[in-house]
Design goal:
By secondary structure, this protein is of the alpha+beta class. Helices cover 30% and strands 17% of the residues. An eight-stranded antiparallel sheet has the order 2-1-16-15-14-13-12-11, sandwiched between helices. Strands 5-10-6 form a three-stranded antiparallel sheet. A three-stranded antiparallel sheet has the order 7-9-8, with no helix packed on it. α2 (83-95) runs parallel beside α6 (176-188). The protein is globular and about 60 Å long. Residues 6-16, 231-236 and 240-246 have low confidence and may be disordered.
Length: 396
Amino acid sequence: MGRNIGILVFLYMISFCNSRANEFASDAEALMESVYYDSAPGAAVLIANGDSILFEGYYGIADMETQTPVDSSTVFNIASISKQFVVASILKLQEDGKLSIDDEVAKYFPEYGNDIWKKVKLKHIMSQSSGIPDLRPRDDRNFMLYATDSQSMEYFNELDSLKFKPGSEYDYVNPTFLLLAEIIHRIEGVEFVDFQNCNIFKPAGMTSTSYFNPDVKIPHSAHGYVANDDATMNMTDMDSDKRRDRAEDYFVDKKGRQWAECDYGEETFFATRPDGGIYSTARDLLKWENMLSTHEYIGAESLNDAYGRHAKVSGSGFSTYQNRPHTWYGYGWFVDDTPGRCMKIYHTGDNGGFQAYLAKYAGSSVKVIILSNRNDVDRWKLQGDIEDLLIKYGIL
């Protein structure tokens, strides 16, 4: 009799858990449908807890010209989320005894003759606290649109001053991460992209993930779009102060909104790879997260160091990007330790019409992935609403 009661209780608990999971998924779906709609550019949203996918939804149009809908195979530019991949490889080389993040940049770039390179360490670049300015020629539109990794690094040869003492301030800079990729190339003797493919993408099973190459068409790739009726962008939530001329050619959705394509050739710095050039799917990014959490690529000590609070973002006088209360930069990840909330380890990404968000929570196996090919959504509000649902249903 007692055994039968135990079985009934067990079955009840399964039923209760399934019911709560269904309610969470239903509320998440309602939230997404309040933000995205079928005829406009959209998003891929995936919420997981360990190996279990709690919610997976695909919304809107990946390609407005062909009217191809967003689905599980849709590939998005993840922009600055790409930075954590090069950081992870630097940490891997440190574990292998091939470098130290305390090494000076000058050790790997003897051709940079100025003494400033003896002051900057690899960890300063990784924590966005190097003091290296971004002096790429922004008055050259063609350069900004098409510059490669090597071209974007050319100004380092002449650099003779820093914005502040390395390690003392936070300043979000993109081209410095090209230095990290070149260090990997010089140590390993293989191209950076090949190294990443061999050591991360293939072992993780990330078969739909690649670095941008203007000569190679990415299968199932979404285009990024900006709304023609948007006069301004939310600059505090973007990598840099980007501006573009509105295209005369645009697409109109069923609500009458106009959407202009905005990716490579229309927006700046799509061609550089270590700092923002990865294209991926929501499912592939979950594989990346699982690779990290199981320490298949880098160990627990390295990962905990990456998630540490190395540069204070809040109150920075040098950068507005993610400059919010209770925010720090680790090595390739932001850390949000807002009181009363689970500590959030995350990164955002923006370029052209693409928005991306990838987060996990300290002491939890929950991951949230949002990849979008429209840039007008209030991403911080959306992730906050998702977080509220996770708390409401006891998942966080």
